[in-house]
Specification:
The complex is a heterodimer of chains A (176) and B (122).
Chain A (H helix, E strand, L loop, with lengths): L3 H5 L4 H30 L3 H27 L19 H29 L2 H31 L5 H9 L9
Helix pairs in contact in A: 2-3, 2-4, 3-6, 4-5, 5-6
Chain B lengths: L3 E2 L8 E5 L4 E5 L4 E6 L2 E5 L1 H12 L3 H6 L7 E5 L6 E5 H30 L3
Antiparallel strand pairs in B: 1-5, 2-3, 3-4, 4-5, 6-7
Classes of the chains: A mainly alpha (176), B alpha+beta (122).
Chain lengths: 176, 122
């Protein structure tokens, strides 16, 4: 008897479900960053607004990477519903706290898919996920560094203006 | 094209899993499965079989059993972009679920066997 399921798809139904959940997570992240960009712009933090616009773009690219991978492997990629995006923030700092939370949650979620792939010996998907693991180093670093600016610069006086200026300059260029 | 037969063509199909209530066969030539259940033999390709599984697994049998309303005890299994629809009683749902569970275990076992026998270099 032919193994019809394996012929049709490289990834298992379980990995496919997890990858589709990740597509949704990345789409959600992209929308959250867009809301952050709007809030920052409305409140005069233009550099941070630009930073979040860029982040939103990146998350969208990640979403498409997952989406196309599912399709290329013979799976069914599902275009996600995204709702419940927080539009208002109580403070400038809260925006960055939420951004870091978001990145941590994405990292954990990718680790979870990685664990499932190891369990199934799906090394092909693991190899695909390696790129994202490396990317998360950068994403978490940037989000953590932004929060750090609140500590080292301080919010008093022109502090927030100074923080905003520096957010645009955050870079991660580790070659390791 | 709707393919519904009344009797299984067991000479060209391979048994995947069967109970007293029904059976699932695989046709290697057509790359599909035939589900013999509720008085018909229906053809399912890979995507539709997965959709059927999802639709049947999503029926909350326990909730249906505990329901005290006088609504008829009937569930419609409609699968988007698939040629077949099932209108089943709760007992039939339980029977179909059993068949599908067995089917997917057998398909998984087949994958393991194929891996061990033909795909992995010893």
């Amino acid at each position: 008897m032919k193994d019809l399921i394996r012929i049709r798809s490289l990834i298992s139904a379980q990995v496919e479900t997890l990858l589709n959940q990740q597509v949704k997570k990345e789409a959600y992240s992209s929308s959250v960053y867009l809301a952050m960009a709007s809030w920052c712009n409305r409140n005069g933090f233009d550099f941070s607004s630009d930073y979040f616009f860029k982040q939103a773009e990146e998350e969208r690219e990640h979403q498409l990477k997952f989406y196309k991978y599912i399709l290329d492997m013979g799976g069914n990629a599902i275009s996600p519903d995204v709702s419940g995006i927080k539009q208002e923030y109580n403070s400038f700092r809260e925006v960055f706290e939420d951004a870091l939370d978001q990145e941590v949650s994405v990292t954990q979620s990718i680790k979870n898919i990685y664990a499932q792939c190891l369990k199934e010996q799906d090394y092909v998907t693991n190899e695909f996920l390696n790129w994202f693991l490396k990317e998360q180093r950068e994403e978490e670093y940037k989000a953590r560094r932004a929060l750090e600016l609140f500590e080292v610069i301080g919010e008093e006086g022109t502090g927030r203006w100074e923080i905003d200026k520096h957010v645009g300059k955050i870079k991660y260029d580790s070659e390791a | 094209m709707v393919t519904t037969l009344t009797t299984p063509q067991t000479n060209t199909w391979v048994d995947v899993f069967a109970t007293k209530k029904g059976a699932v066969y695989q046709s290697d030539a057509e790359r599909c499965w035939y589900v013999d259940f509720a008085g018909k033999v229906a053809r399912f390709d890979y995507r539709c079989l997965l959709k059927l599984k999802k639709a049947v697994y999503n029926v909350d049998i326990e909730a249906k059993l505990l329901e005290t309303t006088k609504d008829p005890d009937v569930e419609i299994i409609f699968i988007c972009a698939c040629d077949h629809t099932y209108i089943l009683t709760l007992l039939q749902i339980i029977a179909l679920k059993e068949i599908l569970e067995g089917t997917f275990v057998m398909l998984q076992l087949n994958q393991i066997l194929q891996d061990r026998l033909y795909r992995i270099a010893v």
